[in-house]
Amino acid sequence: MSEYRITLESGESFMAKQGELLLDAALRQGVTINHSCRNGTCRTCLFEIKEGSVTQEGEEICMISQQERENGRRLLCMSTANSDAVLGKLQRRKRASEGSAVE
Amino acid sequence: MEEKVIVMGEAGRKAVDDASAVLKRLYYTERECMRTLGGYLVSVSDWELKKKLPYHIWQDSLRADALRSRVLELRYPRRDVDQDHDEALTQYLQQLIRSLNDAELIVGVYFVTKQALAEAYDTYLTESDPLDDAPTYEFMRRFSSEIHAQLDEIRAIYDALPEVISNEDHTRTQALSELLQEIGGLFGTEASKGPVSISEALVREPYTAPLVPARDPRFRKAIYHMPPVEWNTFLEHQIWGGINHVNEIWAAEVPGTVLWKWDDMPWEFYLETARWCFDESRHCMMGEQRMKAWGFRTGIDFPVVGDHYESVSHMGELALLCLLHDFETNGPGLKSTFKAKFEKMGDTASSQDFDYDWADESIHLQYGYKWCLHRLGGDNDKLEDLKDEVRETWNAWIEQAHQRWDYEPFLSELRQKIVKFEAMACE
Ligand code: FES
Ligand SMILES: [Fe+2]
Ligand SMILES: [Fe+2]
């Protein structure tokens, strides 16, 4: 069965088996990822996929919009990897009053 | 020749259309009682009442939900269940929040309306068919006793209210009872349709929620709730954490306010917000229980104020909800850290509180995101901007508050007690 290396921006990494939920994999290996509901509804585990391919499972029940998914965001408690991946924290968007659209 | 009909068994009791019409009225009444209590929560002075109402709000929402679902099972058009309510009943229910104090609120919502609801459920059960309408029976047979339990709890609080002790007035009870009778009771009558005239005794200005939440007049004056100092020792962490938890009552007041202000939301909003309101009152009571165990008196030995609420209330109720949502975004990180820390130090009373609080936070985050976004037309960017704006408003407010007040005499008194506790631990 394939296993993928998932690396966080902090440099920490963990292995995720094919089909394994990324949050479960991280917690199993003692890697701390901020989380709460573990069912895709609280958005605490929202990350940006910097590299690699990650599938958002249960799209219809998860609190994540299509636009966010298209922008490479995933809720890790309900996501699985299809390759090695690098995950980053969300970048705060600049407010309209602060000038340019994206920080 | 006409056929002769022989009927065996009991006569029919209630047609489906009649049942759904009555159940819809009861649903509407429960829902409006719940919204009234939510809206008035921020105005409630009495501390015991303030902590009790959110529980009832949640119970009311569950009864309303069961009734609403049942109405829809009875061939009632989905679109109409939340609209086209009897104008006279609406007029009656609108009087309930126009209360001048806690006692008036209790009289209207509890002693007149909930009392009538309990009687209506008993009547419904005797007048309908237990087999044909069994799905209604299943939930409704618990309703009357649940409401009586609410009435008993509230009666005890009511009897101790200063305005009742000094001058209990039955005029409002009587006027509201008469009005309810005039509109045909909660079941209504055909003749009751249309507007009714409101008696002189009930005439009041429309309700406006205060920008600064009311706190029990027995509490000592304060501007903000958290000691403006670092949490150094574990003991300080235990006590400051307790103070913080008690003051989460503001987070119950916010859902209460939006329950009332927003009257055009999907039913799920009311159901979820009622639960949110109750959960936050539980968090407050978790803190109070621990603070009491240390011997601290609420509002006397430590401040209880609505500082968070006050800081953004001038920006409207969406800003309030958004501030709560923004604080909750940090909740899981904070609560899970507290849980682990208190567990490690052997304070399982606190760690268990934080564990359940953390679980509650998961659903609140969903509510907050969903309903703030709903009010913002689904625009994620607007939500992020508003969260930034309210957080900045709060930060500026508290910074200014720190300049105005040094938390005395609470801080010195709390420190003295902490020294005593530390000495006890060394004995
Ligand atoms: S932990 Fe709640 S959305 Fe992932
Ligand atoms: Fe809370
Ligand atoms: Fe919460």
From TrEMBL, chain A:
UniProt domain 2Fe-2S ferredoxin-type: residue ranges: 4-93
InterPro entries in UniProt: 2Fe-2S_ferredoxin-like_sf, 2Fe-2S_ferredoxin-type, Beta-grasp_dom_sf
Cofactor: [2Fe-2S] cluster
Xref: CDD domains: fer2 (cd00207)
UniProt GO molecular function: 2 iron, 2 sulfur cluster binding; metal ion binding
Domain of life (superkingdom): Bacteria
Keywords: 2Fe-2S, Electron transport, Iron, Iron-sulfur, Metal-binding, Transport
The keyword Chloroplast is assigned to this record: no
Regions that span the bilayer: none
Database matches in SUPFAM superfamilies: 2Fe-2S ferredoxin-like
Family membership noted in the UniProt record: Belongs to the 2Fe2S plant-type ferredoxin family.
Protein name: CDP-4-dehydro-6-deoxyglucose reductase/phenol hydroxylase P5 protein
Origin species: Paenibacillus taihuensis
From TrEMBL, chain B:
Top-level taxonomic group: Bacteria
Family matches, as Pfam families: DUF455 (PF04305)
Protein's name according to its UniProt entry: Uncharacterized protein DUF455
Organism of origin: Paenibacillus taihuensis
